[in-house]
Specification:
Layout: H1 2-28, E1 36-41, E2 44-51, E3 66-70, E4 73-74, E5 77-82, E6 88-89, H2 122-129, E7 132-139, H3 148-161, E8 167-173, E9 177-184, H4 187-195, H5 205-216, E10 222-229, H6 240-249, E11 252-259, H7 260-263, H8 266-279, E12 283-286, H9 289-305, E13 307-311, E14 321-328, E15 337-339, E16 343-345, E17 348-353, E18 357-362, E19 371-373
Parallel strand pairs: 1-18, 7-8, 7-10, 10-11, 11-12
Antiparallel strand pairs: 1-19, 2-13, 2-15, 3-4, 3-14, 5-6, 5-13, 8-9, 14-16, 17-18
């Protein structure tokens, strides 16, 4: 009898431990969760120069004169502006009582669709495209000993002439980057930054230009970098292709004014021309300080005649480099030349994950005038 009771007790204890073990094993198994991806879409902004067969600027064009495509997908222009005139908003905002004129096709009466949590407002659009932010990057390396004062004068005159720019920053570089004047509307402060520079070390142009691009990318609106270079790069570890791609992806046009010394090296000349063309800017090679002044005047005129277009990217499965193509409509504009950046790469920089939601935000772009969508883009 005792043996029978003992066997029952042992079997009961064994069953208990087995059931506990099974429960613990079940709790340790990972829970399969189907994550839902939310990606923020920003306006893609383009600075477009249009010239005729003689190189003269073509003015007075309207939004209907432009055809924009991304990876061959037609895009709808959201904002449009010419030169220093106020930018016009083409996508209508919601009416006071929840109207959806100009809203995405998947938006409901509340203005919120399956993939769109907010719609852009007039204030958002104006903050995205308002004004121009110009970053001047001055070569103060040991290449600059001869023409240093003349270059300072040319840059100072250029800064004084930028009436259409809202804010200007002045940086200088040799082996390291020096931020002489942060982005500001105070012209005297910027000019003081120019006058206090001194010539010095080797030239790490691409290193310092990359840092300047990253600074400029933090701001909305039209962003331009104007580089004065007196020689080739002899100290950088960053390849120029990386600098150009980041500038393209963040919508920053690069202009370069180079002296004859810089032009003596064919490789640097080719790199400068490719980099500026890819971002929608231009490269100038000056033989004298008079040519430097003319180059800066040409950049100022270019900025005053640029068309500013922006669009929300249509659904696109491409998660890498996206090609942008801007053409003109109509026979009368067939012989005109269009200059703008030729593409961008999606720049997700911040990734946060919860139990069910992951979020990717564009790199170096504030969340201004954005809406949730099935893809990501930069300005």
């Amino acid at each position: 009898m005792l043996k029978k009771i003992y066997c029952l007790v042992v079997c009961g204890c064994l069953g208990f431990y087995l059931s506990v073990g099974e429960g613990a094993t079940a709790q340790q198994e990972p829970v399969q969760v189907d994550p839902h991806i939310h990606v923020v879409v920003e306006l893609v902004q383009l600075n477009v120069a249009v010239t005729d067969s003689r190189g003269n600027y073509v003015t007075g064009l309207q939004p209907g004169d432009f055809k924009v495509s991304e990876d061959g997908i037609p895009q709808k222009i959201a904002t449009f502006g010419e030169g220093n005139e106020p930018t016009r908003k083409l996508l209508e905002t919601l009416e006071a009582k929840g109207g959806t004129k100009g809203a995405p096709a998947d938006a409901d009466k509340s203005g919120v669709g399956q993939n769109a949590s907010t719609l852009v407002t007039g204030a958002d659009l104006s903050s995205v495209v308002a004004g121009a932010n110009v970053f001047v990057l001055f070569d103060t390396s040991n290449y600059m000993y001869r023409g240093f004062v003349y270059a300072q004068d040319s840059i100072s005159d250029f800064i004084r002439s930028l009436d259409g720019a809202d804010r200007i920053a002045f940086y200088s570089y040799s082996r390291d980057l020096s931020r002489g004047a942060r982005l500001t509307a105070d012209r005297p402060q910027v000019l003081r930054g120019v006058r206090t520079t001194v010539a010095g070390d080797d030239a790490a142009l691409y290193n310092c230009l990359l840092l300047t691009v990253k600074d400029a990318a933090q701001y909305t609106g039209r962003k331009v970098i104007v580089v004065f270079s007196n020689g080739p790069d002899n100290a950088s570890v960053v390849p120029p292709e990386d600098v150009a791609e980041l500038a393209q992806s963040t919508g920053i046009a690069i202009y370069m004014v180079c002296t004859r010394q810089a032009q003596l090296e064919p490789i640097s000349t080719a790199v400068f021309e490719r980099m500026t063309a890819a971002t929608g800017g231009k490269a100038y090679f000056a033989k004298s300080w008079k040519d430097e002044e003319r180059a800066f005047a040409s950049i100022r005129d270019d900025l005053a005649h640029l068309y500013t277009l922006s669009y929300y990217p249509q659904p696109n499965p491409n998660r890498g480099w996206r090609s942008i193509n801007v053409n003109l409509s109509g026979d009368r504009l067939k012989k005109c030349h269009v200059r703008t950046r030729n593409g961008y790469r999606l720049q997700p920089s911040r990734f946060t994950k919860t139990d069910t939601v992951s979020e990717v935000r564009p790199q170096n772009s504030p969340q201004v005038g954005s809406k949730n969508h099935s893809e990501s883009s930069t300005q």
